[in-house]
Amino acid sequence: MARAFVIRPFGEKSDSAGRRIDFEQVHDELFAPALAANGLDGSTTGEIIDAGNIREDMFALIVEADLVICDVTLHNANVFYELGIRHGLRCKGTILVKGRPSAETPPFDLLTDRYLAYPLDAPGQAQDELRATIAATLISTREADSPVFRMLPGLREADPADIVVVPLDFAEEVERARRAGARGWLRLLADELRGLRFEREGLRLVAHAQWQLKDYAGAEASWLAVRARAADDVEANLALANVCERLYRSGGDVERLSRSDQAIERLLAGSRLDRRQRAEVTALKSRNGKTRWRLSFAAVDDPGERRRAAVSRPLLTCYDEYRAAFRADLNHFYSGVNACQLGRILLGLANEEAWYDIFASDAEAEAARERLRRELTELLVLVTGSVDAALANLADDDGERVWAGISRADLQFLDPGQRDGRVLASYRDAIPLDRPFAWDAARGQLELFESLGLRAGLARRVIDTVDARFAALPRPAPPRPTRLVVFAGHRVDAPGRRPPRFPAGAEAAARERIRAAIAARRDPAWDCVLLASAAPGADILAHEACRELAIRSVVCLPMPVADFARSAFADHEPWRGRFLDLLRDAEVYQLSDRAGLPNWLAGRDVDPWERGNRWLVELARSWGADEVALVALWDGRDAGDGPGGTAQMVALARSAGDWRIEVIDAGELAGG
Question: Omega into 106 within 30° of 0, i.e. cis?
Answer without folding.
Answer: no
